[in-house]
């Protein structure tokens, strides 16, 4: 091996790091490679997460599709709706349902939480987009009625897990009572509904009207709830 400072075959002084017969890398090539590696590491740190976001977003969208399909099946057939029917609504195989939700209780609880969040998020959206606060309240109560079909099957699905049921019920109240209160207060301030009724009372009344509705085709809970909400209006002929 030639040492630095020796002459090359052409008689020129050998530069430090130049490739020798032994295959040593030139210093400038080593530095260039180091710079490339450093840039790769920076790109990895700064940009590696970006492709992951769409994957996570896709996974979340797929889960939402399953939950919405299950919710629709529960509204149509109750919480004992066959898994194959839910899978067909979602456009997937039954194995996909079981992979995400190993038990029916897991699925019902997930649908329950999803619908609670959907109801909670719908309140401000409806208030901003509806013609009047009273109209927003009506439309929100319609969503709430759909949700209650799932809620009434929850206790049976959880069987003896009373603590789990109580925790979910507390979550339900914490998320939805304030939303209903905001809609009711807005309608009251606009002079569209009678004052003196709390959001909890209204939700409790709607809930009681919906009990058993999923098991009795002769009973139209939505119609009765509609009469209740109409009775809230200041123009309603109620003493």
Q: What does this entry look like structurally?
A:
The protein is mostly helical and 239 residues long. It has a domain at 104-232: Tetracycline Repressor, domain 2 (Orthogonal Bundle). Helix content is 71%, strand content 0%. The protein has 9 helices and no strands. Helix 6 (133-158) packs antiparallel against helix 7. It is globular. It starts with 26 loop residues before the first helix and ends in a 7-residue tail after the last helix.
Structural class: mainly alpha
- Relative helix content: over 70%
Order of helices and strands: HHHHHHHHH
CATH class of the domain at 104-232: Mainly Alpha
What proportion strand?
under 5%
Under CATH, the homologous superfamily of the domain at 104-232 reads Tetracycline Repressor, domain 2
Largest sheet: none
CATH architecture of the domain at 104-232: Orthogonal Bundle
Calculate the mean pLDDT score and round it.
78
The parts where pLDDT drops under 50 for at least 5 residues are 1-10, 12-25, 46-53
In whole angstroms, how far apart are the ends? 109 Å
**Strand tally:** 0
Q: What is the number of helical segments per DSSP (H or I, 4+ residues)?
A: 9
Draw up the topology in text.
Layout: H1 27-47, H2 49-77, H3 83-90, H4 94-100, H5 104-129, H6 133-158, H7 162-189, H8 199-210, H9 221-232
Helix pairs in contact: 2-3, 2-5, 5-6, 5-7, 6-7, 6-8, 6-9
């Amino acid at each position: 091996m030639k040492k630095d400072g020796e002459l090359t075959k052409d008689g020129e002084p050998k530069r430090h790091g130049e490739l020798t017969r032994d295959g040593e890398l030139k210093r400038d090539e080593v530095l260039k490679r180091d710079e490339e590696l450093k840039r790769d590491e920076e790109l990895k740190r700064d940009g590696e997460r970006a492709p992951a976001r769409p994957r996570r977003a896709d996974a979340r969208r797929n889960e939402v599709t399953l939950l919405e399909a299950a919710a629709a099946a529960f509204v149509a057939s109750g919480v004992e709706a066959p898994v194959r029917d839910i899978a067909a609504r979602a456009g997937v195989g039954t194995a996909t349902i079981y992979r995400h939700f190993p038990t029916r209780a897991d699925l019902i609880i997930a649908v329950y939480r999803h619908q609670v969040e959907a109801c909670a998020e719908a309140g401000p959206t409806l208030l901003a987009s509806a013609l009047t606060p009273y109209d927003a309240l009506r439309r929100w109560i319609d969503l709430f009625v759909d949700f209650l079909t799932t809620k009434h099957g929850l206790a049976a699905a959880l069987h003896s897990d009373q603590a789990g049921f109580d925790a979910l019920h507390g979550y339900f109240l914490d998320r939805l009572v304030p939303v209903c209160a905001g809609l009711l207060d807005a309608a009251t301030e606009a002079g569209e509904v009678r004052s003196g009724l709390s959001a909890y009372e209204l939700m409790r009344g709607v809930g009681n009207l919906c009990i058993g509705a999923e098991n009795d085709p002769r009973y139209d809970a939505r119609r009765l709830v509609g009469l209740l909400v109409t009775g809230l209006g200041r123009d309603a002929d109620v003493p």
